[in-house]
Each structure stands twice: as structure tokens, then as C-alpha cells.
Task: structure prediction
Amino acid sequence: VPAAVASAAAAAIQQGAAALQGIDYTKIELRTEPLAPNVYALTGSPGVDPGHPEAAGGRIMLLTGPDGVFMVDAQYAPLADNVSTAIAQIARAPVRFLVNTHFHPDHTGGNLAFAHRGALILAREEERKALPQPLPPAITNLVDPSVLKAYQTASGDWSDPARLPVFTYGAGAQQMIRLNRETIHLIPVPTSHTDGDTLVWLENADVMAVGDFYRNYGYPFVDPSHGGSTSGILAAVDLVSSLAGPNTRLVPGHGGIVTAADLPAYRDLVATVQGRVKDLFAEGRSLQEVLDARPTASYDALVPGGTTAIPGIGSSASRFVATIYAELKAAST
Ligand SMILES: [Zn+2]
Result:
């Protein structure tokens, strides 16, 4: 592992895991919400997860029926039994398919447990590459051991390859699954939150799990250590706008469930803040000067949790601005 790659990977783990250290998993409860006949969302409780104070972990979506359960995302690893209990209350059949919207541990931590219980995991090939497999010492030596432990606890046992997707597909390869009289579309998302996001559309129920490129709690999160891109968020939003009808329910990984009518305001926020940072960067301002200029100020009152402190990253506003700045800097060198 080249030193620069190892230090970038270590920094990403360090940053991502700082908020995970504060989670008491025994305090997390799951709320089951019906979205359509045989379609449900499972959302974690508020006030337990410092990285996601509005609702712990990543939201799960379920399609139930006689053919077996189809599951979107798998929460943190220590919640697998809670998730199984919640599923057993709405479905008799076992989980047959599990698709991950992207590799982050709040969406894939339960992979191993559900694979061991018979689920087939599907995801982007990019996700399979991004899911931490046993890390080389060149990386683990750079990460604080307590932080590494928090990251591994959230993600599940890295040494067991059963947690990795079995069926994978690339950026251009949309997939379809017929199950429980539903037509399920697995739609690769343009590089945005990460380079391996999937959008899951249940055509008949008209519900779409969109993952994390859209969020309405905190500012957008682009994961630059895994190919994320701010401009890609605009492309991903445009993709959803083109697919969704007026009644389509959009189920984000975090925050409230919305419709396409909520997308233009989000797109405007991303494009406007990006434009402001671009102007400041063009004036030769340093990152600190750009942060001090508060390019998100006019949106802060509209974005719940946007300026809330998050361990390891400052706030989602400062993370968003710093990411845009880093993208501009990378493009200029
Ligand atoms: Zn997430």
C-alpha cells in the first residue's frame, strides 16, 4: 500500500469512526412504518447516534410477501437481532435478498448476520471493493486502535467474506427483480455520495429508496475517499427527478420521507453553496477563510442539524464546504 493511499484511508476511517465511538447500541430502538401494502421502513431512534442524532443508523426498507423478504440496507452490525425481530413482526418468510445502497457501515453492518441467515447480498461492484476487508497493517498502524474498534463494531466481522455482495453490477448496469408481484429496479446512481450507490425503485408500490445522496437532516455528505462528488449529487438528484412521479415516495437513508417536489430546493442548495465556494476559491481564499465566510449561512435555518457539532468532522455544514473546497483544489492542481 503506497504511503499516501494508506494515510488517506486511515484518515477516512478516523473521521468516519469518531462519531461511532459515542453510540450505545443497546439504546437503539427501531420504528416500523408502513409505506405501501407490503412495504415498510425501519428507522432508528433519535438521540443515540452522534453522527445521526435524528435517527440512529441508516434507514432500512422492506418488501414482504410469500416469495420472501426483499431488504434494502442492513443497519449497524450490533442491531442485526433487533432488525430480525422487527422483520419477524411484519413477515413470516425469511430475508431472501438484501441490497445495499452503498458501503457505509450504517447500511452494511448487518450484511454478515443476514447472509448467515440465508440472504443473498446484491450491490455495486464498487461497493464490494470499498467494503473494508481485512486491512493491511500499513493502514491499521495509522489508525487509533479505539477508533478502529468502533468502526469494526459498526461494520461487522471484516474477516468473514460472507458480508460481501455475492451478485454485483457496474455503473451502467440496471437490474430488475420480480418478487411478491413487485417489479424491483436496482438503478446505479451517478458518482455522488460514493462511487457505488444504488437507487431501489419498487415500481408498483411507487416507492424509491434513494440512499444517502439526498438528505434533509444536515448538509449533503460527499465521501471523497470513495469517489464521491458534489456535482454528482446534482446529477443524482436529476436522475431521481426524471424517474419519480408526483406521488412517488422517496425514502432517504437519513431524515424524512419526501417526494420529487422536495428535490428542487435541495438541488438549489447544493448548486448555490458550490457556486459560493467556487467564487471564494477563485479569489484565492484559504479553506479557513472560506469556512469563516460561511457560504451556507442563508440555508442554515432551513437545514435541521446543519450546524450541529458532530465528533470528528465539526458540523455537516463545515464538512460540506470543506469537501467542495478540496474538490476545487484537486481540480486546479
Ligand atoms: Zn448513511
